[in-house]
Write a structure and sequence with these properties.
alpha/beta, Rossmann fold, globular
Length: about 260
């Protein structure tokens, strides 16, 4: 139990540091981050991403489908911030009651979009939570990148270091996961990500279809989160590669977007 708590706390701190150092600076030229800013995080998990916003005085709401992760978030944040500044909700985003009428200055999603089925519908649906002049920050690993399959969650010593194997045909992919004795819960999650994995090109089409405007974007060769996890300095991918549709997905480990409604 102590090990589980320690791991969650480490992850929480990594999320908070990356958001403070990279996400907020990415946003703040387009939206002041202060005590008048309302922030919603969808798929907040333990809510580490919300802590830097709370520390700047923002009003923060976190929604996650996992009740256990929301309980951890309450443990880490509940005693630090008042109820009028922090709201944590354990619920499927699609089951939020129709009479929940809060709208936010900023919605954030880090490494969540690739887990959501039917992303086209989701990007239309989520507009209900955004103020007309609100901003929406998303970061995701393009599916085709070397570790876009989230193989880091496997228990094997080999699979987390094996690039691109998530791109194999589904039957072969499942066979490899079973061969390395991954438990069925992990296999189910990885298969789900394989079905929902998002590319830069498809995301661009989704934004256009749903009338979003891109305010800012950045494609990273070295994910900003790798600095807190592995001590690697973030590095943006060169423009020559990011300009080539489809090919860029193989060489970008993180795509950052700030968008708004047209």
């Amino acid at each position: 139990m102590q090990q589980r708590h320690t791991n969650k706390e480490q992850y929480f701190n990594e999320q908070a540091l990356t958001t403070k150092k990279f996400v907020i600076p990415f946003i703040e030229n387009f939206l002041p981050i202060n005590n008048e800013t309302s922030v919603l995080e969808i798929g907040c998990g333990e809510a580490g991403n919300l802590k830097p916003f709370l520390d700047l005085g923002c009003m923060a709401t976190g929604i996650d489908i996992s009740g256990s992760r929301i309980e951890v978030a309450k443990e880490f944040l509940g005693n630090q911030y008042s109820n009028d500044r922090l709201e944590l909700i354990a619920e499927d985003i699609y089951k939020i009651p129709a009479n929940y009428n809060k709208k936010f200055d900023l919605i954030i999603m880090r490494d969540v979009l690739e887990h959501i089925p039917n992303q086209e519908y989701f990007m239309q649906y989520v507009k209900r939570f955004l103020k007309p002049e609100g901003k929406f920050f998303l970061a995701f690993p393009p599916w085709y990148n070397p570790f876009g399959g989230h193989q880091q969650i496997t228990s094997s010593k080999i699979l987390p270091k094996l690039p691109f194997f998530h791109l194999l045909p589904m039957p072969v992919y499942k066979f490899i996961l079973k061969l390395f004795n991954e438990n069925q819960g992990v296999i189910n999650e990885l298969v789900s990500i394989k079905k929902t994995g998002i590319s830069i090109d498809r995301f661009s089409k989704i934004l256009k279809k749903n009338n979003y405007k891109i305010l800012k974007k950045a494609f990273y060769f070295i994910n900003p989160n790798y600095e807190t996890k592995f001590g690697l300095k973030p590095r943006k991918q060169i423009k020559l590669i990011t300009a080539i549709p489809h090919i860029r997905n193989y060489f970008v480990t993180a795509a950052y977007y700030l968008i708004s409604l047209k």
